Amino acid sequence: GSRARTRRAVAVLGFAGLLCAVLGAVMIVVVPTLIKQQVLKNVRIDPSSLSFNMWKEIPVPFYLSIYFFDIVNPDAILLGEKPQVRERGPYVYREFRHKSNITFNSNDTVSFLEYRSFQFQPDKSHGLESDYIVMPNILVLAAAMMMENKPMSMKLIMTLAFSTLGERAFMNRTISEIMWGYDDPLIHLINKYLPDVFPFKGKFGLFAELNNSNSGLFTVFTGVKDFSRIHLVDKWNGLSKVSFWHSDQCNMINGTSGQMWAPFMTPETSLQFYSPEACRSMNLVYKESGMFEGIPTYRFVAPSTLFANGSVYAPNEGFCPCLESGIQNISTCRFNAPLFLSHPHFYNADPVLAEAVLGLHPNQEEHSLFLDVHPVTGIPMNCSVKLQLSLYIKAIKGIGQTGKIEPVVLPLVWFEESGAMEGEPLQTFYNQLVLMPSVLHYAQYVLLALGCVLLLIPIIHQIRSQ
């Protein structure tokens, strides 16, 4: 009797082992596909997907940190001496973003406006919004540059107008005025006689257009029908390409709107997005893989050619006329003011630029940008995007306010937009997209191993009973 019982137990174990082994083997075949389907379902822009609410109201707290270049020697610059600046800041703002007017279109795309608003964070900042700072008077110096090739009589009228309005080449204003706008008699004058030259009605500020406003109407592919184009921008403000630059390649709207990318990245993937602020598409490249709070990430950084000029990197010729390499002329999309975009402190640019201004210290640690993206889903976990805005200034013959200023690209501000996933969204993300897949991944091997062990029992039993 006991022998029959043992034989039955061995048979049951053997059968269980066979089941486990088969299940494990099936899982090895099926799980990757299941995980892939799970990811596909959860990253597309569709109200049923896991990332839809993340996409709609970004749960990551974003911060905008601004550093100002306070001018130490404004009077000396007017006499033709080398500018000296002192970095002030950061002045930190919490950035809130939400999408509205979300409209699903019939061609597998969705259109939306993304609104942004900013709140000053005194505890994170190094100074207050009421701090005074000496800055170039952008309106005066830009207007002077635009007059460079106009008749002398017009320049003299302008000098007179500037004097009457009390306008000078440098100004001493508070952080909040420079950021969010100040009243300037020059704007009223220009808007009166030359309407539609400036986008500003009333106040002029470096970030005035950003607060409580949107960055244009984006239309992006949802990935519901055709997965291969997920998150790619179809149109921006109804355009499929912009007209700021001189080549089709530079005018192309490539990549995503900069919040999510296609899943299943490899180190060969590049991170492309369209930036309304820079009026162009940017392309970041893979640097290394790492971990963020237990989540595997790929780090993407700016290639050295991002702001290279046309002679260093031919495809960028369309962004010219260029000055030295490493700064990009954005005047065509900034009402023709001679403004330039670069990395902070002219990092990665022609050394001549940083040497022309005292007080600049470019270094990789503080001034390079990165995005850490979860490669399986294409969702950013931790990012820090840093850019600098500079103004090209020089003496213009006939406009007295410009004195003897030597031509120089003078940094105005640099800013960092940073955000890292944290708290509950991070936990949900980790559980569903990292923990679950790895549990399934290990389960298949455990089942297979268990199955083999259980299958060995009847075999060993058979050998021993003989």
UniProtKB/TrEMBL annotation:
Protein name per the record: Scavenger receptor class B member 1
Any matching Pfam family: CD36
Q: Which UniProt keywords apply?
A: Cell membrane, Disulfide bond, Glycoprotein, Membrane, Receptor, Transmembrane, Transmembrane helix
The organism encoding this protein is Neovison vison
Protein's membrane topology:
Multi-pass membrane protein
Q: Membrane-crossing residues? A: 12-35, 442-460
Q: What is its main location?
A: membrane
Q: The organism's lineage?
A: Eukaryota, Metazoa, Chordata, Craniata, Vertebrata
The cellular location(s) given in this protein's UniProt record come to: Cell membrane; Membrane, Caveola
